[in-house]
From TrEMBL, chains A, B:
Catalyzes the removal of dipeptides from the N-terminus of oligopeptides. One of its GO terms (biological process) is peptide catabolic process. Residues 1-28 form the signal peptide. This is Dipeptidyl-peptidase. InterPro entries: Pep_S46, Peptidase_S1_PA, Peptidase_S1_PA_chymotrypsin. Keywords: Aminopeptidase, Hydrolase, Protease, Serine protease, Signal. It comes from the Bacteria. It is an enzyme of class 3 (hydrolase). Pfam families: Peptidase_S46.
């Protein structure tokens, strides 16, 4: 999930005062709708469009889910449009001290120059199958960890039954309405995804972190990928038509993509724990790591290069959490949420039949939060965030856990460890990705220091983990000593038994082995005291909502395909009106020459050729969130007119509620992409494929 | 203020549930009492002591205030006992790449080896004069900025009238009860303060940041200074007698020192703004800077050396704020505060005469918080925290503001800029302190980056400050170009007019000059919209408290001399009982050999000589807070038995309330100091002076 949310931090507070309620039928242009419950009539009535099932099917079949982002097919030969910031990780991994594709861009003159992105997948949704009864049935009569295990096992079973070929299929059971409904989403999957085009970082990410979430905005946040099979581009007759013309103010816009996560259906007690515990700890730890990465970047040009993408990701996350916290500490916003909850509870209480069926899941969740407050820090430090971002640690943990589960009979394995799933893990591990030892040591040191700080030095797990050594020394020993940077070694170790791993002598493997029981224990506690009862209560609340408000509701985002609708429209805040468009000429006016406000070299070199009146970025009222990055923005005719890449400042509270007057999606227009391909990056091959002269 | 509060972060939450109310007469051992309102009878009744005015006078005359800390006279020749962490700044400033007195300790064999601490003062309170009527009278009929200016001018006038010789006298008008009372505190001041003894950092700060606020604790957090005049030690016939024996469990203990700041009398709306805005921003920014300093420390041995004290200070502050936030997000704690406020308001409302006199200051403060929320970020970034900790920036700001005020007639100058005060500033500027350019650039870069981030890149003041340059480039240009690292240059520039400064060509001076109007404007806004109305409302609330509860109350801490009482006592939390003492042998058991748990070299070298049964550190129920560091801990006879240096984990919420069952003061015993001077550091000269064989 990485639709970037930049935060103009001074302006929080009142930004989210007016919000409508996800718990009641949606108003304005609110909603991240599933394709099987899209409000066709509402949209056609409001915007005079002629959306029908065929329109929806074509859009759905053109929508692509890629790692953490969204995308779309835009030619018959497997060409995929997404954001630059969704392919920059690939560009970074393909780069070296000699070739910096992040800084200089990645341009291809022929198909042969297109390069495979390590670990990149592309998934196109083919089927949606309701599996609510099977999932709910699996947990019947069970509690805590047993409940979580039974649910997980059933989920994995459904997935395995429906996807027998994990190399070309993905099956995923997805929860909707926080447990109100479960559906199997089945995808056609492609594992050979190649980078076709990425502009220079200064073109795509002009303004850097300071401009992130700013609008007016001047960013060519676009990139192209292509799916291959058997070494050839995949034929994709169903795709979106490229419209190189910018929309006009008021034009209807649709966004098809995978919003990552919203929390609009959480109860007050859940929101309060986010506000008081999860978000503060996350912001504080992220900030310290941010300082480390910033300082590390000053030590050499190479350090600066390798830090680029990790730092971008970290700063992006920081803003998301900071923005969430702004909403959660806004008394008006929280007052409104409180009112909504009170209304639902009152309506449940008013109907004896419903009340008897629902019970008091709000009270249950309050009790869960008390347990969660106690367990959160050990769960976070020892399990959920263990390794602090180190790839080498992650490899070791994957290998150790696979070995342990493989040693068990199938029926006793934890969910997600079927043979098919293990084979998939093996393929992932074999991918070649560069490792920066300096960065790895920073991640591990930071994580161990924070674990000691937050769990205290006298905590038994901390003592076992650190022994008599300093965290930085341990990190150094592990990173310098492990052989897991080599994909061949990883493949070899993935096949080992726990005993063989213990005898391997690899220090990172030994470290993970030594601490894994404690980590699994805290995960089991969390499942038992938090995940299990939360799932049960969430289902009850979803049923309460269906009973009171009917089923014409959209669910919270779960990184599954959604469609949102809206229109090109600016906004007015505290008397200042922000128009919906920027133009390419504006980039040259905003550029100062100093990072991150230096214009990209190709933009400078070709300034005289650029049509400065071209619409660059634009905003619309669509309701989206992180994970929607790269989503095609589509007009009434179903043509693609841009790639969504950000939200405006006011959409920060979008995790918890949508405000139609202020929340905006930020999109880079196909008009600007076309202009850049033609007059800045000179890509006639791509233009021809897109059907543009 | 730097009594260190370490936080065992996992254990917050319930830690502060039981608190008594500063707004009602104090119970248990609560209270940071002024010397003119000490509850003699209560203490004598409870502890069977014979405290009388003579006892109080002798303690008061032996108490010393030093920069940000507390201390006491312990010999007739000006010898001062305080904490190591109160003299480590001096040790750091006296150090160089060749002589590292922080790491190796600072030991003296003769008086001649005692070295003057740059900028160090020592102040002994001589008079307390009530000036409430004068101060309150000065603001009569005025509002906002005019009110603040009139109050400030009267305060400065009182101070100047009473202290004509600023080299040997300090006069300070101090607010008590948040404006309920004002008193002039007059001190005998010494400006030649020399370092006599500091142990190795690993002896004093064993366990480092992880153990900070931990107990059981094994830290020799002690240091000695000496006051000089005319090149000779000052004769100090009044001083505390050194008792080299540890107290027993249950023994009464007094702590005389300068608690820096508490917020026990703040209203709910004030606490909520702290919780939602001030503390989060502070924690987040501090964490990022912390990450930078940690990473900078890894770049070289010299960088590690210079970062030591700044990083210690930063981590200490982080814990204080984090601990505060733990209390402010604890629903039980805040519920109790809310009840207390409701009770006071109800009792005011119940008496028409009082109600008419008091009005609704709680409502007024609610409105003030709305303004403060809007103004806080610009005020913080452009004025209150401007420069981000850079000494060179601070010098430039001092010089520029002095020049501007000096150019005005006396009556129009801002408070604090009388000729006497300016002369004092000049003396401070002339002190020689080392400057690390790398550290200076980190501070400035971090500050400018955060200013741009929080005020946004399009803010007019940010644009004016940065122009077309990147923050890191500006920082580099300022630090490399300025001559203000040279005390002679500072002295010369301090005498210049604004015009001469503008013509000087110094880039740091030019930078401050260019941005100073904006900074002063935001300060004026803050004074007018926040400080002024807060002072007025605070006075009303103090009067309400006096009217309802009488005057047998202690005021919030304001870094003025206070006396607290209590007893040596451990505590029990969640079924675990922590005994009140540690012993020197425990240090050797806790030591791992890895930083920060490596024992000091002198401790290792002399292990066989040390009496391991010596009481090392102990806890007592005294109510103290940051600023109390170095305070003498005194027995019933008035003898010194230790130096307070920390609070336990539960005292974290002490800013807002005291819990007698859990809050503890942590003290290094005179028994341990004596043992260390004798058998580890071999200081017969000091032992003889302390009257110990």
């Amino acid at each position: 999930m990485s639709l970037r949310f930049t935060v103009s931090l001074a302006a929080l507070g009142a930004a989210t005062a007016v919000l409508s309620a996800a718990s009641t039928p949606a108003k304005a242009d609110e909603g991240m709708w599933t394709f099987d419950n899209f409000p066709i009539q509402t949209v056609n009535d409001k915007y005079g469009t002629h959306i029908d099932q065929a329109w929806l099917d074509r859009v759905r079949n053109s929508a692509v889910r890629i790692n953490g982002c969204s995308a779309s097919l835009v030619s018959g030969e497997g060409l995929i449009l997404t954001n630059w910031h969704c392919v920059v990780g690939c560009a970074q991994e393909l780069s070296s001290a000699e070739h910096d594709y992040v800084k200089n861009g990645f341009l291809t003159a022929t198909r042969e120059e297109e390069k495979e992105c390590p670990g990149q997948t592309a998934e196109i949704l083919t089927d949606i199958i309701d599996v609510t009864d099977r999932v709910l049935g699996a947990g019947q009569g069970l509690e805590g960890a047993a409940f979580v295990q039974a649910r997980g096992a059933e989920t994995t079973k459904i997935e395995d039954e429906n996807c027998t070929d994990k190399e070309t299929q993905t099956c995923q059971v997805i929860s909707f309405y926080r447990g109100g409904r479960y559906a199997l989403y089945k995808f056609r999957k492609y594992e050979d995804v190649r980078l076709v085009f990425a502009p220079e970082n200064q073109a795509a990410f002009f303004g850097g972190d300071p401009d992130n979430f700013n609008f007016p905005r001047y960013a060519l946040d676009t990139g192209f990928l292509r799916i291959y099979e058997d070494g050839k581009p995949v034929a994709t007759p169903t795709h979106l038509t490229w419209n190189p013309n910018a929309p006009k103010e008021g034009d209807v816009t649709f966004v098809a993509g995978n919003p990552g996560s919203t929390s609009r259906l959480l109860t007050m007690s859940q929101l309060e724990r986010l506000r008081d515990q999860v978000n503060p700890i996350t912001l504080i730890q992220a900030s310290e790591l941010r300082g480390r990465l910033q300082e590390y970047a000053t030590t050499s040009e190479e350090a600066k290069r390798v830090v680029f993408d990790p730092l971008f990701g970290l700063e992006n996350s920081f803003k998301v959490y900071y923005g969430q916290e702004g909403a959660l500490t806004d008394p008006d916003f929280m007052g409104k949420k409180r009112e909504q909850e009170a209304e639902l509870r009152a309506r449940v209480a008013a109907d004896p039949a419903i009340a008897a069926r629902i019970g008091d899941p709000w009270g249950d969740l309050e009790k869960v939060q008390a347990s969660a407050r106690d367990l959160y820090l050990p769960y976070r430090q020892l399990e959920a965030s263990a390794g602090g971002g180190s790839d080498l640690y992650r490899y070791a943990k994957t290998i150790v856990r696979a070995a342990k589960e493989r040693a068990k009979p199938l029926a006793e394995r934890r969910a997600g460890y079927t043979d098919a799933a293990l084979a998939q893990q093996a393929r992932r591990l074999a991918e070649v990705t560069p490792i920066d030892q300096g960065l790895e040591e920073i991640y591990l040191t930071h994580w161990m220091l924070k674990t000691r700080e937050y769990l205290t030095v006298d905590n038994a797990e901390v003592k076992a983990m650190l022994g008599k050594d300093a965290p930085a020394d341990i990190a150094d020993r592990l990173v310098q000593g492990t052989k897991l940077g080599d994909p061949a070694v990883r493949a070899q170790m993935f096949a080992m038994t726990p005993e063989q791993l213990a005898a391997s002598g690899d220090p990172m493997i030994a470290f993970v082995l030594a601490n894994d029981n404690a980590a699994q224990a805290v995960r089991a506690q969390w499942d038992s005291a938090v995940n299990g009862p939360t799932a049960k209560a969430g289902e009850k609340i979803a049923q309460a909502r269906f009973a009171v408000y009917g089923t014409n509701l959209y669910p919270d985002a779960t990184f599954s395909l959604r469609l949102s609708y809206g229109a090109v429209e600016g906004w007015t805040y505290r008397g200042v009106t922000v128009p919906p468009f920027t133009y390419m000429g504006g980039l040259y006016e905003r550029a100062t020459g100093a990072e991150p406000f230096n214009a990209a070299q190709a933009f400078l070199d070709n300034e005289s050729k650029v049509n400065k009146d071209t619409v660059y970025d634009f905003v619309s009222t669509n309701d989206i969130i992180g994970g929607n990055s790269g989503s095609p923005v589509i007009n009434a005719k179903g043509e693609v007119i841009g790639a969504a890449f950000d939200g405006n400042i006011h959409s920060l509270g979008g995790s918890f509620g949508y405000d139609g007057a202020l929340n905006r999606t930020v999109t880079v227009s196909t008009a600007a992409i076309t202009e850049a391909l033609r007059n800045i990056y000179h890509q006639p091959r791509l233009l021809a494929e897109l059907g543009v002269r």
